[in-house]
Write a structure and sequence with these properties.
Quinone Oxidoreductase, Chain A, domain 1, 2 domains, seven-stranded mixed sheet, 10 helices, 16 strands
Length: 343
């Protein structure tokens, strides 16, 4: 059996270990992908820190794009050489939520395979995936494609399905990392005016280049005042919070227009407080947003193929550099999205 390289998570608080593992064998309904690119996500850091649970040992990496190497005997819709993108979660397809088209709140979601969490993911030369979790890819850069698998689809779901952003809405994107950069583009494509909020001027400049109508540096400006000024005193209709801290929640709720919606996408390591009186008196709404379903990922790939959605990828690392790359991500040193080139 051929041995291949993978970056494995063994224990909370410890760096990933580069190991030689057996090349995966596909089951009858599975596809073996030769991984071409794996996007880097803050969720990987949350796993290492123990904020998000994962199996041990497991190969991390859930933004996975690659070329089909081998298919199981029952797989008819993919063949050797096809390009594919992984939808990393596996809703059951049978519960009431799934039957209503809401697979991302499937009642069995977290007991089923999650690539890069409960089963081996894409920080490896090869990754085996159930064929049902694959989306065909057009001819597009591998790095761009990989980042659509989580960063892109998380942003798409939050903006279009949860926030339901529409023409002429004022929307603020709180946190301009890799996901926020996709969110602001999708909000612009929905016809909204977009405010980007962050602390890194280089990231804010990138947000501006991707279409943000206004940028706010939270280190030097009062967010509430800047938003009120830009919206002629009204406030934003939607605030999408990718930071989720006491500070971001306070700033978000004080910057909403009456009847506005706050959408929480980021994962916090501790409980966060809100003022229910303000939410009642101004009829604010609060919603969580996880990630889009496979159909949404297919829509997003089409959007990228059309050229209307731009890649947010700026930095490339090798698999051997995985731990230093994740440390750079932790420190906020990556502008846009970073990825691991595999082969």
């Amino acid at each position: 059996m051929r041995m291949v390289k993978a970056a494995r998570f063994h224990k909370v608080g410890e760096p990933l270990k580069l190991e030689e593992v057996q090349k995966p064998r596909v089951g009858e309904n599975e596809v073996l992908l030769k991984v071409k690119a794996a996007g880097m996500c803050h969720s990987d850091i949350h796993v290492i820190d123990g904020i998000i649970a994962a199996a041990t040992p497991v190969t991390l990496g859930h933004e996975i794009a690659g070329e089909v190497e081998e298919v199981g005997v029952n797989v008819k819709n993919f063949k050797h050489g096809d390009r594919a993108l992984v939808h990393f979660l596996s809703p059951c397809g049978a519960c009431s939520y799934c039957l209503e088209g809401n697979g991302m709140i499937c009642e069995n979601l977290f007991t089923r395979p999650g690539y890069g969490f409960s089963v081996d993911g894409g920080y490896a030369e090869y990754c085996k995936v159930d064929a049902e979790r694959l989306v065909p890819l057009p001819d597009m850069p591998w790095d761009f494609a990989a980042t659509l698998g989580c960063a892109g689809i998380t942003a798409y779901h939050a903006v279009t399905r949860i926030a339901k952003v529409k023409l002429a809405d004022n929307i603020a994107i709180y946190g301009v990392g890799g996901v926020g950069m996709y969110a602001l583009q999708i909000a612009k494509l929905s016809g909204a005016k977009v405010i980007a909020i962050g602390r890194n001027q280089q990231k804010l400049k990138m947000a501006e280049s991707l279409g943000a109508d206004h940028i706010i540096n939270a280190s030097t400006s009062k967010i509430k005042d800047e938003i009120r000024k830009f919206t002629n005193g009204k406030g934003v209709d939607v605030m999408v919070d990718f930071v989720v801290s006491d500070e971001s929640i306070k700033n978000s709720s004080s910057s909403l227009a009456n009847g506005g919606k706050m959408v929480i996408v980021g994962v916090s390591s501790k409980p966060i407080s809100i003022n229910p009186q303000v939410f009642v008196l101004k009829e604010f709404s609060l919603a969580g947003s996880l990630v889009g379903n496979k159909n949404e990922l297919e829509e997003l790939v089409d959007l990228a193929k059309s050229g209307r959605l731009k890649s947010t990828v700026t930095q490339r690392f090798t698999l051997d550099e995985i731990n230093s790359a994740l440390e750079a991500l932790r420190k906020g040193e990556i502008v846009g999205r970073g990825y691991i080139i595999i082969q």
